[in-house]
Amino acid sequence: MATSAGLVSVTTGSPVVSGTLTSFMAAEGDQLVLRGLTAVIDRAVSSSQILLKQPWSGPSISGVADWDISLTGPYWQSTVVTNKRLNDLIARFEAGPIKWDAAGAPADRAQYNDQGVGFVYLSLGDPWTLYTKIKNTGGESDWSAGQEIRGSPAESTVEAQAARDDARLAAGAAGGSAGAAQTAASQAAGHAGTALSGASTATNQATLAAQQAAAAAAAAAAAAEAAQLARLVGALSYDMGNLSQPATGSAFDFGSGL
């Protein structure tokens, strides 16, 4: 995703890039592409000013429209890292002695009423509970009474801590995107109300604001999901070697041996 509405100016030897009718959205590590030259961005100071990592080494440029910002920095990759680490943690659980076919919120269990006998659903309520299909009539009565999974709070693993940290970064990225979108929307409204001569600029600003708002909403949704998974997967650290399949009707106990 890139943002390129408005005019940009920069002076040789200066790290400051100024914009006119712009709505800069950038983070550390992103790239400014201007007249075929590329510079690494340190941060967006405001919607009309960017600070480069190094002073601009190209010629002085004033009021040009052929520019772009490539959002390639690590700031925008936090949700990718979060999902990878959470998937690794979930894979560890799935490799343990407890097996399930599907997992989700307690209310989501009904989606699997049509599954065959022996299907196992892990309800991620409080506490986590395993349910098994003991018959196949397609109703709620098909499920077993449920076996709770108990756990004792322990020191979080490095992976769990990293997952939670990445979830927070993802939420921060979503918040930053949402803030930029709100700023752009406000500027668009201001331009629209200034004069008819600014109608074209206001239209561009409003379009950009809508794009940024959509990106912010997607990032926020991903961050919320990542945060929830990080909490569920990273909240407890279990010694999987001490687990065994319990007798029917008893409870799984993760706490023994910790």
From TrEMBL:
Keywords carried by this UniProt record: Plasmid
Chain positions covered by the region annotation Disordered: 141-162
Domain of life: Bacteria
Protein name: Uncharacterized protein
UniProt source species: Methylobacterium aquaticum
